[in-house]
Structures are given as C-alpha cells and as structure tokens.
Amino acid sequence: MADKIKLFVNGEEVEVESGKNLVDAVSAVGIEIPHLCYHPALGADGNCRMCLVGLEEGGPPLVPACKTPAQEGMKVLLDAEHIRKIQHDVMEFELINHPIDCPVCDQAGECKLQDYYMGYDRKDSRMTVPQVTKSKKLDFGGGVVHDQERCIVCGRCVRFLRQITKTGELGIINRTDTARVNIFPGRPIDNRYGLNVVDLCPVGAMTSSDFRFKQRVWFLKKVPSVCHGCAKGCSITIDHNREKYQDDIIYRFRPRLNQQVNGYFMCNDGRLSYRRENEGRLTQFRLGKNERDMLDVITGCNKEIAHSRKTVVLVSPDLSLEQMVSVKALAEKLGATLSGFSDGYIKTGDGDDYLISDDKAANRKGLEILGIDSSRKSFEEAMADAELLINFNNDLSLSYDESGIRSLLGDTRTIACSTHDDELTGQAHFALAISSYSEYAGTVINCDNVLQHFTKAVTKNNELPDVCAIAAELGSPLQNAGQAYAELQRAIGALSEYQPADIPAEGLNLNDSEAANVTA
Amino acid sequence: MGAKVKTIARRGSTLQERIFLIEIFKGMATTFGHFWRNLLDNSKLYVRHYPEVKPEIPVRWRGRHRLTSHEDGSVKCVACFMCQTNCPAQCIQIQAGERLDGKAEKMPVSFNIDLLECIYCGYCVEACPLDAIRMDTGIYSVTGKDRESFNMGIDDLLAKQGAFTEEDYKKGGA
Ligand code: SF4
Ligand code: SF4
Ligand code: SF4
Ligand code: SF4
Ligand code: FES
Q1: Boundaries of each 4Fe-4S ferredoxin-type domain copy (chain B) (predicted)?
Q2: Do B105 and A104 touch (CB under 8 A)?
Q3: Do A121 and A106 lie in a common domain?
Q4: Which ligand number lies closest to the CA of residue B129?
Q5: What is the pLDDT of residues A347-366, one digit of tens each?
Q6: Chain A contact present for B79, CB below 8 A
Q7: How many structural domains are present in chain A?
Q8: Domain encompassing residue A56
Q9: Would you place residue B2 in the very low, low, confident or very high pLDDT band (cuts 50, 70, 90)?
Q10: pLDDT tens for each residue of A162-207
C-alpha cells in the first residue's frame, strides 16, 4: 500500500494515496475532476485543459490536474466560480465545430462530451459562422471507423498505438481547425490490439465496424466476466441484451480494468470471440442423428456407461474448476480414465510478450492444480482399448487431423457434451448440448496463476445444462454447484476462506498464497 | 362553445309515482314517441351517424403513426432509437443499418410498431429529434382480422401522408 497523504479539495480534507496525480488521487475518494486527454494507461499529455484546477496557496494559481502530483497539504479548488467558468469555456471550445451527431453516434450514452456538457456546460452554442467540416466514416483498417468531425484531438488513440502497441499507425496532421487524426497513406491500423482505440476514444470519433449500429449502449446489460480466448484470461465486461421476442445474445466484449491480469486492454481476437458464444451452438440432445428429449439421451448414456468395460473421460481445458472437479468425481466413480489432453489448443508462436498467450485454453492451470493428466501418451494408451469416450467439450479436431481422429476413435462409442455443433459432435453416438462460459458462473486460473471468478451473464430462452449438471446426471457424486465448490475448496487451499461471491474482482494471485501450491 | 346544461329535479315521492304502473306507461309513451319520430325522419338524431358520418379530427389528435420522409421520398428517420427508448409500452422495434445515400450515416432497416400494444401516448413523437415520426394521419380507427395486421412495418408507416397541412400541424403545437 502506498503512503497516505492529506490534502484539501474545496476546503474539505481528504486522505489520498501519494504518488498519483490529482485526477487519480481524488477520484479514488469519489471526487471527479473532468478530464479528456488523460488516461491512466497512457499518461498525462496536458493538451485538453479540461482538468484545470485552482491551487489556493503556493505554486501557480491554475494547474492541469492530470500533470500535477498530489502533495501533502495542497489546497485544491474545484467548485470556485473561475474554475467553473474555465470548465464551461473548455467545453464550449470543444463543441465549437462538433457535429452533435448523437442520434447516429454509437458513443452516445457513454460519451465524455455528453456527460461533461450536462455536468459543466449546459449552454446553447454561440457559433454564428459555419462549422468546419471534415471527413466522416473513414475506414482506418483493423475494424476501426473514424469520424474526424467528432474527434476532439485528445491524442489518446495516437498515444496508445505509439506507447502500447508501438506500431504508430496514427498521427495528428495539421494544427488548429484543420487538425485531424489520420493513418499514413496506405498503412491502415494493423495490429492485434487495435480495437482498444475504440474504448479509449472519449468521444464517438473511433467506432468499431463490428459493433456499429447494432445496439444503443443503454439497452445493453453489462456483466463482469473473464475472456476464454486464451490462457491469459483477460477480465472483460460482457454486454448483452435480449430484444423483444428474441433470444439473449452478446453484442460485444470490452476489457475490464484488472491490474493483475490485463490492465485496461484486451486483444482483438478475444474481443471478437463473443461471436462464438452466439453462433454455431449445439442446442439439441441427440441419439445418433435423431433429436430427443434431454432425459432420453441421458438415460441412453447411462445404459451405455453401465455396459462399457473401459471408459475414457476427456475434459476440455476451457472448463471451469467447478466443472473439472465434477467431472473428476464422475470419472473416479465410474472407474474411468480421466484425461485433459489438449495439445492442439496450443498454437506455438502465436503469443506475444504482452497479453496474447500461445495457449488458447482458458484453464489449463486448473487441470494441473487438480492433477488431471494431460499427456498425449496416457490419453492415447487409454483410448487404444476404450469402449466408450465421454468428451466434455474438448475439441479433438484441434489436436488431430481427420484420419488421426478416425484411427483414435476406431469403434469406440462416443458421448459428446458440446457447446458447439461441429462435425465430431455430429458423428457422436450421443450428443448433449451444454451451456458455454457466458451462461454459467465459474472459476478459472490463468497462465500467471491468477484465479478469477465470473458470474453468469446470458440467460438463453432455451437454457442448457452446464457440465456440472450433466456430470451429476451421469452419476457424479457432486450433485450441485455448491458441492462442487466445496470440493474445489478442499483441492485449492487458497479458496478455503472465500465463497464465490467474495473472490475479489481482480482475482486471487495464487503465487502469493503459499497454500495454493499444495494438495490435489 | 359550452354545452347546454339542463338541470332535472329529482322526483318519485308522490303517490302516483309510487304506484309505478302509470309512470311506466308515461315512460313508454316517451320511448315510442322517439321511436316513431326517428323511424320516420332520422335527420334529427341526437347521436352521430357513425360510420356514415365521420367525426372531425383536430390537428393535435394522436392517431395512427407514420414515418415522415424527405422531399425525395426517402425516410427521415435515422434510427436513433429515441422513440423506442421512450416508448412506455415497448411496442417499437427498430433495426438500424448503414445509410449510403449521403443524407445521414444511419437509417432503419426495419421499423415496427405493434399497434395492439401501443397506448397512443405520443411519447415517441415527442422524443424524435428529427420530426421523423408523427401521429397526424387522422386515422383513429385501426381494425384488422388478425394480430399480424396490427404490426405496422416501415413500408406501412411510410405509405401514409399526414392528414393536415404543414402549417396547421405546426400550429397544433408540434
Ligand atoms: S461524440 Fe458524443 S457528443 Fe459527439 S456526436 Fe457522439 S455522442 Fe454526441
Ligand atoms: S479519435 Fe478519439 S482518441 Fe483519437 S484523438 Fe480523436 S478524440 Fe482522441
Ligand atoms: S404512442 Fe406511446 S405507446 Fe405508442 S408507440 Fe408511441 S410511445 Fe409507444
Ligand atoms: S426517434 Fe425519430 S429518428 Fe429516432 S428512431 Fe425514432 S423515428 Fe427514427
Ligand atoms: S486531462 Fe489534463 S489536460 Fe487533458
């Protein structure tokens, strides 16, 4: 914990952390200093002047809060007449040439200009000369659409691409009225984090071609979750909505601040992985090729399990810890071999040294901690004489090619519990639809040993059972999520003092807790 | 123009009235009097001859909706969803898409109002920043044979013109 210092805001004493600038220091105690160009991840640029505050004694009378470190005994003025006038004047200045596209602007509802206009301006425009017009709807590449008229030239996007991705695709060209953000001719935004500029832009100048016009943001329900796109497990917000007479679907993923994992950002692939939650889903229960009632299929599976002399249970490295312990308990009960073989989930060389990981599995650390064997050798040995394979959503097509799968399966009967309706699921003797990670609550551990809990976001019209429920139906002694979590607490010592709801939003770093590395 | 008010004294306490029978015949005489008079000449009826005679609709009457259009006939609506957001009955369903004719960036791909759910409050008209939706068609009676026919689509909404001149509409307080 950083040291605390005391300073005064509008004459009232507040205690804040030292070593921060004024904007961040006082926002931690709930006081807002309006700011446009400053972003904690990009540092202070000092170009917008929205954050000007007064200092009562010592130093200059007026300072930009984003560039001023909080100091002991400082007397900050925020609500004085002249500060309000400055805030109003800066807003008026920002809006001189602003097109007020709000009705057609995707940012409306989460726009800093709208918020600050309502908070600090609230005056009609005094402009009598025609506004400066600029280009609209420019395709900047990488799924980013730019509107130069809405841009307030805060430089956040430019700084992101220079400081964070170090690709520098954007620049600010010209000065004053003719200043615009643009790409260099023939060099579109081309990096795997480019879509973050859409979140960073405080106004609607950067929009995402993927999300464009799909929903107004105030209709979206926002639920914190964890991205399952790779082993990094970035903290995200799932924005979903059920339109009238339609199903609940996801409209976008956005990064959620987590200093332990992803900071303020996430990669493009992860951001767009929401589509897989909406599309290509398995929603039926099938006996062979025929759609049946869930109970019929489960009964069939249970008969099959009873007849099988050797059963192999395969789990996906994407399952939550709760689901893994349920399946593990099931395998022990059936005397089956349990495997987490998923070499195909690792795309060697795909990762980088920032967020993207080679491993596309969300919870491989979970397999390790629970002691689930994931080696190719033991899985293939077990499959050699297996009569039945129960596959909990492990996508074998990532690990084997077509002929490989054929020789692996031979005449083994298969029960496929699957979120997606792919070819392998189509060939399975039994197919059971299960819910995916946006539709259940669970816990996963990322590649850096940070354990995060996520809650259920989406409720489909036709709700599917999750892996825990299916495992319970197939005979797992852990009959509900509560029992699975209790078992999990036994396996992971660090969890013993936490109920799921108490796990901190930024997760638990298991490296910090001694207890984590024992047991199981 | 105030209505004429006629005060009728409460009656019913005299003996003759309390026998009832006499009063019943007197009442029947009045009834049959009206009956024969209306049968022979109905021009003096006290009620409107609906549906042969239609009522006059004032400009501010909230009738069935329509979507207004630009001079070239293209839709004015920019799919901002203000009306859908403001609608207390949640009976407006819009889908937005790119607009390519240069008039705006965005336009409705589909625009549905379910008139069976609409409560004709006019909040949608008030919310619209572009005067793109109005309830000035003068249509006060919406009838149909099945539920689907009450779900107005974008083409239905664009097809109908306003029932009043622009000048009168503006005078009506819009
Ligand atoms: S950037 Fe903000 S103020 Fe400007 S048009 Fe978009 S929503 Fe409106
Ligand atoms: S596009 Fe957005 S982030 Fe970039 S300079 Fe303009 S307002 Fe700032
Ligand atoms: S009149 Fe009222 S209920 Fe009907 S569509 Fe408009 S806002 Fe909705
Ligand atoms: S409020 Fe007006 S412009 Fe906006 S969607 Fe409704 S009709 Fe269209
Ligand atoms: S936020 Fe301080 S000058 Fe822009």
Answers
A1: 67-97, 109-138
A2: yes
A3: yes
A4: 4
A5: 999 999 999 999 999 999 99
A6: yes
A7: 3
A8: 4-95
A9: low
A10: 999 999 999 999 999 999 999 999 999 999 999 999 999 999 999 9
A213 touches chain B (CB under 8 A): yes
Residues A39 and A140 in one domain: no
A468 in Cβ contact with A456 (< 8 Å):
no
- Do A136 and A16 sit in the same domain of this protein? no
pLDDT of residue A272: 98
Residue A269 is assigned to a structural domain of this protein: no
d(CA A199, CA A110): 10
What CATH number has the domain bearing residue A127? 3.30.70.20
Read off the pTM: 0.92
pLDDT at A464 over 50: yes
Where are chain B's structural domains? 12-47, 66-172
Nearest residue on chain B to A217, judged by CA atoms? B81
CA distance A32 to A42: 19
Task: State the ipTM, two decimals.
Answer: 0.90
Q: In this complex, is the C-beta atom of A246 within 8 Å of any C-beta atom belonging to chain B?
A: no
Q: Is residue A249 part of a domain?
A: no
Domain final residue, candidates A161, A184, A208: A208
CATH code of A443's domain: 3.40.50.740
Taking alpha carbons only, the member of A504, A342, A369 closest to residue A447 is A369
A108 and A130 share one domain: yes
Q: Do B85 and A216 touch (CB under 8 A)?
A: yes
pLDDT in the model for residue A518: 47
- Alpha helices (runs of H) in A364-480, residue ranges in sequence order: 364-369, 376-384, 402-409, 423-427, 467-473
Residues of chain B found within 8 Å of residue A216, distances taken between Cβ atoms: 80-81, 85
Architecture of domain B66-172: 2-Layer Sandwich (3.30)
Distance CA A27, CA B63 (A): 50
Annotated binding-site ranges of B for [4Fe-4S] cluster: 77, 80, 83, 87, 118, 121, 124, 128
Residues 6 or more apart in contact with residue B132 via CB below 8 angstroms: B67, B68, B75, B76, B77, B78
Predicted local confidence at residue B49, as pLDDT: 84
DSSP string, A59-75: S-SEEEGGGSB--TT-E
